[in-house]
Every structure is written in structure tokens, then in C-alpha cells.
Amino acid sequence: MVVILKNNVKQEEIQGLIAHLTGLGVEVHPIIGNTQSILGLVGDTSKLDPSMIQSHRIVEKVMYVQEPFKKANKVFHPENSVISVKDHLIGGKALSVMAGPCSVESYEQVLEIAKSIKASGAGVLRGGAFKPRTSPYSFQGMGSEGLEILKQVRKETGLPIVTELMSLEWLDKFVEDVDIIQIGARNMSNFDLLKEVGKSKTPILLKRGMSSTIEEFLMSAEYIMSEGNENVILCERGIRTFETYTRNTLDLSIVPAIKKLSHLPIIVDPSHAAGMWWMVEPLAKAAIAAGADGLMIEVHNDPANAKCDGQQSIKPAKFDALMTKLKKIAEVEEREI
Ligand code: PEP
Ligand code: MN
């Protein structure tokens, strides 16, 4: 971190600030000029609050030299992380495809979809039991009954399950029952929730908040990791822009950015990004070509009658055809499905 001081600051004021910063446990390397001085801070600056330093009246500006995320940072962990969910790996050579309905609607529905996506090569079954809906009058999910259905289908098919946790009240149950806990876009900045899931060892699928920068996204991962849970899988699901044609704008540039900045795996959800079923295929292909570690895709056996997100759900046959095409793109990227 670099602290740039205002012009013509008195020596004793500089010494006072140096003493204060040293007291916070960092080494201070001052460069004292005739009119302007700069303090270089080295050591563990992760716990320093830049706005607190900025509040000293002699400080002009505080700048980061390194990114504020440490545990998620590639610099401190050059090897890519591979997250294990039973024998399914996320972040390795094989791509991880998570698929299933937006929400759990019945045992028969989930079982039928699960069997077909498994036959097509998906590795994880998705399905919301607790749904974050914009309207309180929309279907809110089947709740604990939905969770039981997912568990039964897991038993039947062997597919691990990923489902969204919205409230801390369900955390213990999720840790016991779920293979991957999803933190949805709306909760990416729910720091209390992030800290609590960080105390578990269950892999976390963290979706990007709809108005979050890449750095904010990584800082949310940092919240989870700083509590001890390093099993974080990032998921790009589109961000809000001025464009209204699509539900969100898929920011594929995040994939190479995350590969440069972090060792965490990143998957892409083209369904929530586009909001239209016919865009899922081209965006899924582009995501794999861009270097994503996998995909999350909404698949429904009867989209027209889906209780949630039918307009962006593809049918099992379309998913199967897509997987065949993705295998070829994966090969070009030296990956496999
Ligand atoms: C979901 O995956 O079911 C979901 C609600 O996604 P997001 O949090 O990205 O909107
Ligand atoms: Mn959905």
C-alpha cells in the first residue's frame, strides 16, 4: 500500500503518522521530499482499512499496490484450485456442468430431468428449494420438502446436488444435506451469510452480484475463505447494464480476468445471463471457448409449465445436443467433458 501525503506537511506530523502505522503492524518506508512525501507500507496490509488512513488530515491519497484479496489471489497461490465434490472435480481438466430446473417442483420432475442430464454428461444436479423471487407473490420454492426431493434424486442417480441457501436458519441442514451450497447473486454481498458458510467445509458456489465489480466479487469470495472455507467456485451469471433486450449482460471478460487474478475455478450461467432459452447454446459455447471451468444451465422437461424461469430453460434433448457440441470446443481448449 502507498500513502501519498499532502504538500508541505510538517515533519512531526509525518513522524506521528509513521508511528501510528508502525503500531498497526506494518513496516513503513518513507520517501521524504521537499514539498511532497510518500509512505510505502509493506507486510500484511490486508487488515489495514484504507479509509481509516485516508481520514488523517495530512493524507492526500491511499493506493493499493497489491489487490485487497489475499486468499483468493493467484499471486499467493499460483496453482489453480480444484474443488472436489465427492468424485466430481471442479477446476481440473474436465469441465464441470451443473444442470437442472430453476426450482424443484416435484420428485417426478426432478428425477426425469436428472436422469436425462446425467445421460448427457452433466456432473451436478441443480434445483432451487428456496427461491429468491422479485415478487413475494411468485412461487417461493418448496422449501425443506424440495430439499428432501433433491436428496432422494441424488440417491437414485448418484448426482451431487447444488442448491441455494438464502437464510442462516437453514445453514446446518444444508451443511448436512447438500454437496454444494449456492449463494445467489442477491446475497453475494450478504457478508454475515458469507462468513457463516465460510465456517463450514462444504463447497460454495458463489454467484456474481448483478452490480458487482470483479474486485467486489473476489472480496466476497475472500469473506468465505478468510473464515477457513477455501472451497469456493465462482459463477458469472450476467450483470445489469443499460441493455434491456437480455435479462442481464453476460460479462465473459470476467473469465480471463479471474484466470489472471485468482486460482479459484469459475463457471458461467448463460441461462440467468440471457433470460432466453435460445441464447443459452451460443453463450455456453462462448463461455467454454473463453476458458470457463464449467457451466450452470437450467434444463426443464416442460418449460411452458415451469414454476420459475421456463423462458430461459432448455429441454433435455437440446441440452444433450449442446453437450455434444461443447465436447468439441472443450477439445480445442485442451479440456474435456
Ligand atoms: C438460480 O441459480 O436459481 C438463481 C436464482 O440465480 P441468480 O442468483 O444468479 O439470480
Ligand atoms: Mn432460475
UniProtKB/TrEMBL annotation:
Domain of life the protein comes from: Bacteria
Keywords: Transferase
InterPro entries recorded: Aldolase_TIM (IPR013785), Class-I_DAHP_synthase (IPR052899), DAHP1/KDSA (IPR006218), DAHP_snth_FXD (IPR041071), DAHP_syn_2 (IPR006268)
Molecular function as annotated in GO: aldehyde-lyase activity; transferase activity
Domain DAHP synthetase I/KDSA: 87-329
Residue ranges annotated for the DAHP synthase ferredoxin-like domain, each copy included: 1-67
GO process terms (BP): aromatic amino acid family biosynthetic process
PANTHER family to which the protein is assigned, alphabetical: CARBOXYSOME FORMATION PROTEIN (PTHR43018:SF3), PHOSPHO-2-DEHYDRO-3-DEOXYHEPTONATE ALDOLASE (PTHR43018)
The protein, known as: 3-deoxy-D-arabinoheptulosonate-7-phosphate synthase
